[in-house]
Amino acid sequence: MAPSKKKHASSQPCVIPGGFTVLSLQFSSDSVAQHELYVKEHKVRAEKSSHRPLDRTLFSVELRDHPGSSQDSGPKLSRFFKPVAKQGFRVGYVVFENSSSLRAAKSHPRDVSLVVCTEQRPVKTGVQKWIQQYTESFINPDILQKIVDSFMEGYDKRKEEEVERQREAAEQQKEDEEGWVKVTRGAKGTKGRPHNIADLRKKFEEDKQRIALLRAQRKFKPY
């Protein structure tokens, strides 16, 4: 937006209760209709978002005819042509590149209207705006291809990891059924674990027989 070239009688900003500065807006330099925008510096102590820095963010409010309601103030139209429902007031946040721009907005005189559409920054409306929105709705084929390729690479990787997990689970189940256990290499100098569960069972049965024999020898006392 840019200030209009009309002469003004006062260079003082208009500040209303609540700390809001009133800014006058008009769409183009030759527009007759004007609008008012209420803005003030965004200051919230609990603000943690990096998208709204406290020293460069402007909080703006656009007042509607019936805040908090959807009542129509204009004439009734045909059922084929329905006006946009009004949902009370609207708010927005404007983040400037530097804090000096924020101060300039707060001190802008009310009787100098800000122009939205200029030669340097044209704003499309009507059919031209619809055409622009329609064109922008299409995704660039190169960008779309990159998105698809990235998704498929991630899918293939997840698929390979799932197949590997299933293979390891099948091998583990097969080892358990055959009685084999996986041996892991321990620290240097330590003995490895037995390779076969059957050997452990055999040794356990031998130990049981040896213990039973010792008990029998202790009970047998011929003298």
TrEMBL record:
Lineage: superkingdom: Eukaryota
Ribosomal RNA-processing protein 7 C-terminal domain residues: 136-191, 193-223
Any Gene Ontology CC annotation: CURI complex
InterPro entries: RRP7, RRP7_C
Gene Ontology terms: biological process: ribosomal small subunit assembly; rRNA processing
Region (Disordered): 166-198
Similarity annotation: Belongs to the RRP7 family.
The protein, known as: Ribosomal RNA-processing protein 7 C-terminal domain-containing protein
Source species of the chain: Etheostoma spectabile (orangethroat darter)
